[in-house]
Target: Lanosterol 14-alpha demethylase
Amino acid sequence: LKILTSMLLSLFEVGGSLIENAVEKVVGINLTSMVLVTTAFLLSVVYLSKKIMQSHIENPSPGCKKYPPHIPSSIPFLGHALSFGRSPIQFLENAYEKYGPVFSFTMVGKTFTYLLGSDAATLLFNSKNEDLNAEDVYSRLTTPVFGSGVAYDVPNPVFLEQKKMLKTGLNVAQFKQHVTLIEEETQEYFKRWGDSGERNLFEALSELIILTASRCLHGKEIRSLLDEKVAQLYADLDGGFTHAAWLLPGWLPLPSFRRRDKAHREIKQIFYRVIQRRRQFGEKEDDMLQTLLDATYKDGHPLSDDEIAGMLIGLLLAGQHTSSTTSAWMGFFLARDKSLQDQCYAEQKAVCGEELPPLDYDQLKDMSLLDRCLKETLRLRPPIMTMMRMAKSPQSVASVTRACQKKKQFLKKTKQNLRWLWRQKLDFLIPPPPIAGHCHFKKFVFSLLGRHRCIGENFAYVQIKTIWSTLLRLYEFDLVDGYFPKVNYTTMIHTPNNPVIRYKRRLY
Ligand code: HEM
Model:
């Protein structure tokens, strides 16, 4: 296998420089030729590699299976990309039924191995970054957006230090201030909705999440500069998180890539000015920007302006899609179940008092029904459905070995577990059952353990619960003619399709 791998690597190296030369010649002349050259080369390499690898995979050594089952495809290069793209959940469920929790397939010339369910996915959380590597898969997307020197552009130990600095700024004292800021932003934003109507809930919540995150995580100076022009810059930056940016080479002169890079430069300039003013005048604020200005790495050196600006962009965008989609789905679940919505409103009064005074952090913690609605939304509509890693070394997944030993029994057991986990029954009213290993939603929504765990979880809870407490006090929500949005699988984070909701001002 080593020989085969090195043959393939040499092929890629030779091909890479061929493409580079070809591209140098065609750039500026003809984009189509460039794409054709790249595609032709990739098709040939993929065809060759597929033939070589297939012969290896189809003839595993006798005894226990060495490789996960590979789902065959008759479409060269694209493989299963189309059927997966159309309906990833159905594709994965079918594959799970047929092959069990661990299987591989090809899409756009790349082999993906899926680990489905908590048992199999444990490997992903517990492995070392040197073995299952995150930056190799995420950096293509994040580095052009956040910039260099941060997140997946640096070795993981450095990113871990940066995450620790950010985590210092996400503390309870800060959350207590955030609740008031988010409530104010929400009341202000929804003034434009008037007393009743039908509006795009996802669009509104996406705009509101940017405003609240900027106010809470960037500080008042940067928030005060957030006008329509800056909002457009964020939208252009955000346009960098696409399948195209992940799959296509970054140097392609695509309009979305150019807009992303221009927005990145302009936003950084805005942040530099604010950072320099704070440094110059020595004003000390109690916020995330100050935390980063005062932070140092283990060896004592401080963050550069560029690193601070990159971390601020990362902080804003890491929670943007996750929180806005989750809040929107939660709104549709509440609109679909009026009795649940009424109980959530009653909880506002029970926890905060009949007069519904301004919210505070301790009250939010006592809103257990609202909390379960949020958790159930995250379980049924997880914004990050798939976590990805590049396998740098051979890995054995416990379930594959176990599947060899006791195949039938094991597959049956995991199927039941998976169905249990994703069944559509809504558990808004009961606390999660204490079944070891599978029950707690965190186990499959936020990466509970490991070096890539989410640092924004508590902030996301504060943000979404404050927004929904405020909205429940303002309006009653209904589905428009009973329409509950379908899932839009074409976006990287699965958003609600046609997310229009009906609302009217609450009068009692
Ligand atoms: C509903 C909201 C959110 C959900 C569902 C969510 C989910 C996740 C998940 C599943 C991961 C693991 C990704 C992986 O292992 O590949 C993650 C990591 C992370 N999240 Fe969140 N997140 C949310 C909100 C936020 C917010 C608001 C922030 C920032 C304020 C944030 C910052 C991060 C960071 C920095 C990481 C670490 C990435 C790494 O170390 O590789 N998240 N999140």
Summary: The CA atoms of residues 442 and 448 lie 6 Å apart.
